[in-house]
Amino acid sequence: MITIKDVAKRAGVSISTVSRVINNSKPVSNEIRQRVLKVIEETGYTPNPLARSLVTKKSQLIGVIVPDISDFFMGELLNGIEEVGKIYDYDIVLCNSYGEPDEELKYINLLKSKQVAGIIFVSWKMNQKHVDVIEKANIPAVYISKNATEFDVYSVSINNFEASYDMTKYLIENGNKKIAFMKSSAQDNIMDSDRYRGYKKALKEANIEIDETLVKEGDDTSESGYYLMSEILEAKNIPDAVFASRDEIAVGVINCILDAGYKVPEDISVSGYNDIKLASLYRPALTTIKQPIYDMGAVSIRMIVKIINNEGLEDKKILLPYSLIERQSVLKK
């Protein structure tokens, strides 16, 4: 096995000089740098990552804290983070906090002990204590959270308020006035949700009074969507359309409607949010809001790498575009 000592001997330089070339830690003349790099290429020498981190006080590790690894959103996000991380030669240390603030804080300290080069912090709802602990640890961080824009931090998000407003307006423009709204309880109280606020704004602008009996909250699963829709149907308060804040909920809603003898979209239109893979495969195919989830992960780790390398970032808060995907679950006017 080729060691750093072997490289130094063949290049005719000291071990510390080879280390400087590898870690780009101190100035080295171009002639010596090229000589060392040539020997490294010829010998196939690979620096020991642990030894390298001890010298540079950094590692090729990015810590990622997520609230629920089983969630579809998180899976797509992690794909973007990991694939782009590999391009820049970074590995991922994944921490699943289950959305518990104490667990999130514990993992921040754990990642600090592992000398991660940066942290991507994903949370349903972040608070100032998270920011303070990460800043005190002096670790570059990018945040992905529905309320990240409220803090002076680097963040990646989409405008959930505007996206929900656009979907509700789309339903209204297609002749729906009685629109139910279903929200996941996993992302805090429905009354404070950006998506719910967008829904309310569109109804208000159309002079449609909100029927609170058509506003439901439950788990972000198809089973929950089925149960919530059954409550509405049993109350005989049949809506023209249902807007679910998650595609999984929307699938359950459609199943319940069909089991009750109604048709989608002829009797009740249904729309979702996120554009998971099932949305286009299900029948009727689901009209939904497409979030660039993979891109959110890819952009967040690219931001981290730029911060680590002291590259300039034009904006601290990156707002990615969304799109409304029209399929067959909403009856067109």
Automatic annotation (TrEMBL):
Record-annotated HTH lacI-type domain positions: 2-56
Q: Which UniProt keywords apply?
A: DNA-binding, Transcription, Transcription regulation
Q: Which CDD domains match?
A: HTH_LacI (cd01392), PBP1_CcpA-like (cd19975)
Q: Which domain of life is it from?
A: Bacteria
State if Transcription is listed as a keyword. Answer: yes
Is DNA-binding tagged as a keyword?
yes
Q: Which SUPFAM superfamilies match?
A: lambda repressor-like DNA-binding domains, Periplasmic binding protein-like I
Q: Name one GO molecular function term.
A: DNA binding
Record's SMART domains?
HTH_LACI (SM00354)
Identify the PANTHER family for this entry.
HTH-TYPE TRANSCRIPTIONAL REGULATOR EBGR (PTHR30146:SF149), LACI-RELATED TRANSCRIPTIONAL REPRESSOR (PTHR30146)
Q: Would you tell me the protein name for this molecule? A: LacI family DNA-binding transcriptional regulator
Origin organism of this chain?
A: Tepidibacter hydrothermalis
